[in-house]
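User: We ran a pulldown and think these components assemble together. Before we commit to crystallization trials, I'd like a predicted model of the whole complex to look at. Sequences follow.
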Amino acid sequence: MVTAGQSIERVSVIDKMEEHEQIVFCNDKATGLQAIIAIHDTTRGPALGGCRMAPYKSMDEALTDVLRLSKGMTYKCAAADVDFGGGKAVIIGDPQKDKTPEKFRAFAQFVESLNGRFYTGTDMGTTLADFVHAMKETNCIVGLPVEYGGGGDSSIPTALGVVYGVKATNQILFGDDRLEGKTYAVQGLGKVGFKVAEHILREGGHLVVTDINDKALEEIQALGKKHGSSVKVVASDAIYQQEADIFVPCAFGGVLNDETIAELKVKGIAGSANNQLAEDHHSRLLQEKGILYAPDYIVNGGGLIQVADELYGTNPERVLAKTRNIYASILEVFQQAELDQITTAEAANRLCEKRIEAAKNLNHFFSHSRRPKWDVRKSINA
Ligand code: NAD
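Assistant: Here's a predicted model for the assembly, 382 residues in total across the polymer chains.
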């Protein structure tokens, strides 16, 4: 937590910004709000990114986090092919102790002051209830509950996207994208993982699963019996050593590291967990081992697609239709990696950069709709 009087003078903010467009430091004495909003790139549209709340030890730590996360959102939005750029916000404080409705309303006033350049919603340490307070101050909130005009449970499109990621991986590995007859090692049967596992069973696949929640394990075993497919339950640490066709990580990040890659016996990886690669170089290690890795931020884009789609009004069918494009994006990444002799993680970044470049070409001529808001003649002539 940053205390009064602690300065950030030793941190050269401009140096840290790299290619970021804008950083907004928010300080509201009345509510005690201290937050940072980072807008990385708005080439493809207004910045979109969740708002995290954490007890950062220093302003420098908070700034580093928000800059890194907002850049990641530019790539995630381009990968999901939504008309948004990358942004993120962090509120400095302990989510267990320091939350008040007023703080979130003050935060939302800062968001509103950006006049549509930044849209936000929940992330680590913040909840839907926090943003029900925030939405009283700005329309730039997404991912709200259905009763407040939001799209509802984002794990449904996320799980569908994972299924399409798995199918695209099957297509390249086996020349046939069907789930049937193959074995999938699913780590984590939570909101996303359970739905993915259920889908695999429905389409005739077999499972090796692990979770620390016994109830989820029992439920998936019962479904296995119903569908006539095998479901083997293993201990948490044993999941990496299982003989399976595809590893489907749906629990937590950092699961692809030196130790686990050495153990893996699968041919491909496609799952929902964020930041699966412990370090960038692990994508090369996977490639050297002959394991095809479907980049996580493309595979798990279904939830983001739903949140971005809210601006068109909620429509679950349209969201699921858009989510199916994850299949084509993953295939494009695999083909590009092969063509350029690079890793699939590098190819994913290139795909996103290509999409951002294409958006620049869209904005190369002036049109009435792009007339700046400060042009008063617009309102006089309207
Ligand atoms: P969740 O919390 O509902 O599920 C996680 C599951 O992992 C739980 O069932 C938990 O018991 C299990 N788990 C925890 N520790 C484990 C361990 N050591 N071994 C085995 N299982 C363990 O979360 P979720 O919403 O299903 O998300 C799963 C992953 O996907 C997370 O990394 C999340 O960041 C990512 N993700 C989720 C969404 C979404 O829409 N929910 C979108 C994008 C990315």
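The radius of gyration is 22 Å. That may be worth checking against your pulldown data before setting up trials.

User: Thanks, that helps.
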